[in-house]
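Much of what follows relies on a compact textual record of a protein's fold. An example makes this concrete, so a full record is given next.
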Amino acid sequence: MNLLPFLFSPALIRSDPNMVPLRTFKIRENVTYDCINIYKQPGLEHPLLQNHKIQMKPSVARHELKNQTDNTKTYKNKMGCPHGTVPILRNSKEYITNAQLFAEKYVYPLSGDSPGTHIAGVKSQNGPYHGVEASFSIHNINIERDQASYAQLYVGSGLNNQVNFIQAGWMGENGKGCYNTACPGFVQVSQEVPIAQPLDQPHEHLLHYSIHQDKQTGNWWITKLILNAPNIDVGYWPKELFNLIGTGANMVGVGGAVQASHQGSSPPMGNGKFPTGDRKESAMFTNIEVLNSNYEQRRIDSFPMEKLLDSPKCYGIRTDKVKLLDFTFNYGGPGGNSCGV
């Protein structure tokens, strides 16, 4: 099984096969990245970005983003595109087909219920918010080809039948490829860390990501937080793409989610174990913080917060009863054939 960080939308970003890359990195079978001129990357082909000027870094200094983790190993990057280029995933036909199928069955937390989808997490709808960040565990789990299991942090707003939604996290899948489900119009800036990649860092047991809105430009950035190394600003979604989160998002949240197979069998969530009193026994989210309306960073439980769990027979969620320095919860479960619709 492959695990990868993913950013989700029903549309895809992929390398143009007719464009000659300056350098190529083959990470593993069916996972190849091309170093493309930053000004010719496919995300800029979006019709709303014809006159967009690339923002090379967030206006908020990186040291203002907290980097509190318990991973003490050194991060080793496998890619490094030449100056002026960025890594773009080269997608095979099978890869593209799998991503489109996943996009069709994915359900946004802001939309109506979807048959076979189950969630366990927390959210706050007391916006406007300008960001969310969290550390969350990654796991190797066994799922069927037509199932999906993922962990995510997200921001979004909904009005009538419209939804603006951004998320980041990891996803398990049992096909040969891995999904690149980046939003249309995403602007890749980092020369080292692409928008989606397999998770194969030695001793990397936690992911640490921040989704935050730039105070000056209104663009929504995704930043990878790394212990003992500078934070990496991967890229951003330009403000021109959105009509509901231009001045902040109404909702932020984190948690796990699954999608059952066509036969109705629900896959494992997290590491497949129900949460117990031991924080290390099941999947975990920790250091969960949000940026409020004044761009002040606060614990998510500083605001009205809703716990999400729709299938307690198959999955669970357990928050710390003791007030720690950070807000933490464990989640997950084995799934099965009787998890409900």
About this structure: The first strand starts at residue 2 and ends at 7. Residues 221 and 236 are 4 Å apart (CA to CA). The longest helix spans residues 93-105. Confidence is low (pLDDT under 50) at residues 1-15, 62-72, 175-182.
